[in-house]
Design goal:
Length: 351
């Protein structure tokens, strides 16, 4: 079996190769023949390539690298219709991210290529980052840091009207209660916060057992002094938090989005910040990435921004490689995939 480790500068090819070798030789099996490709992300932004999204590299270089390959493990390689049609020997693409957005699933299915992905790979990292954004926004940590570095000792920030707020006894609403949301909820409860969750796919009995209160989304927005988004972006959830729903927030609420930029309608945000409806906004994801030079939120007050870093830990990279390696192991043993993206493709028995 010839395997392409199509890594990048985060999930590196050597991480993929090491995880695959460990997985495939643990019961006395032989290590496969490897070939490697290093894609330019994140040193160069990802984008749309040949109809797939959040991809890195070119179709041409991927087609060349896939010569003679039956299995590819990647995070960002653009598996377009053109690429999939050009490599008839390919049988599995294991994508080391939470969703295979860089793969044309319809074309993969037509070409008999199974696709898997790696849900939960960055859940601890993303959950910790979301809580960090909450704390930074509620306590003005970033602003105070910038002031001190600029040579200004802002003792006046201790004044009552400038003071921050605490997570202890706060009501925090989580929009989405998947793997990341559940970790965030556990951390928030340890701080002493009351946690509301809005997620139509969550079992309300299980949520109550977790110590959180399941509610409708509009109710969550009305009752929460802090709201954090953790839903997946689909056609159903695009602009889920729109102008009407933003208007439901209590005056001075804190809003955090470290999930996907498309969940949030960005147009009303500058005015809501200037008018005080939003007390603070913390963003790791955006409607346009990278943000443009004339981005309206650049001069809005009380905004904390980071460049899509919530999942950026070394542990995430190792977990991503390990999850995809386990899928390749199942594939080579003829077992069902744990995380198939196109289960209609018969994979049992292939190698």
């Amino acid at each position: 079996m010839r395997v392409l480790a199509a890594g990048d500068h985060f999930v590196r090819p050597e991480l993929i190769r090491t995880a695959l070798s460990r997985e495939l030789t643990r019961d006395g099996g032989e290590s496969p023949e490897f070939t490697e490709l290093t894609l330019p992300w994140p040193h160069e932004p990802f984008g749309s390539v040949g109809g797939v999204h959040e991809a890195s590299g070119t179709e041409e270089e991927l087609i060349r690298a896939l010569s003679g390959v039956s299995v590819c493990v990647t995070q960002m390689a653009p598996f377009t219709e053109r690429v999939l049609a050009a490599v008839p020997g390919l049988r599995l693409v294991a994508v080391s991210r939470g969703g295979p957005v860089n793969v044309d699933l319809a074309a993969a299915t037509r070409n008999g290529v199974a696709v898997s992905f790696a849900p939960g790979r960055n859940a601890p990292a993303a959950a910790e980052f979301a809580v960090g954004l909450m704390l930074a926004a509620m306590r003005r940590i970033s602003a105070a840091d910038a002031e001190l570095k600029a040579g200004r000792w802002r003792g006046d920030l201790y004044a009552y009207e400038e003071g921050g707020t605490e997570l202890a006894d706060a009501t925090v609403g989580l929009v989405g209660y998947g793997a990341i949301g559940r970790i965030v909820a556990r951390v928030l409860r340890a701080f002493g916060a009351r946690v509301l969750v809005a997620d139509p796919y969550t079992d309300p009995v299980a949520a109550v057992a977790d110590g959180v209160e399941p509610v409708e989304l509009d109710t969550l927005l009305r009752r929460s002094s802090v709201v954090s988004l953790h839903a997946r972006l689909t056609e159903e959830t695009r602009h889920l938090i729109d102008a009407r729903r933003l208007g439901l927030l209590p005056h001075g609420a804190v809003l955090v989005n470290s999930a996907r930029g498309g969940l949030l309608d960005h147009a009303p945000l500058p005015e809501l910040l200037r008018g005080g409806r939003l007390g603070a906004l913390a963003l790791d994801v955006y409607d346009i990435e990278p943000v443009p030079a004339d981005w309206p939120l650049r001069d809005a007050p009380n905004v904390i921004t980071t460049p899509h870093l919530a999942g950026a830990t070394r542990q995430t990279a190792h977990r991503a490689a390990a999850i995809t390696a386990a899928e390749v192991g199942r594939f080579t043993r003829g077992e069902p995939l744990a995380h198939p993206a196109n289960p209609e493709v018969l994979v049992a028995g292939r190698s």
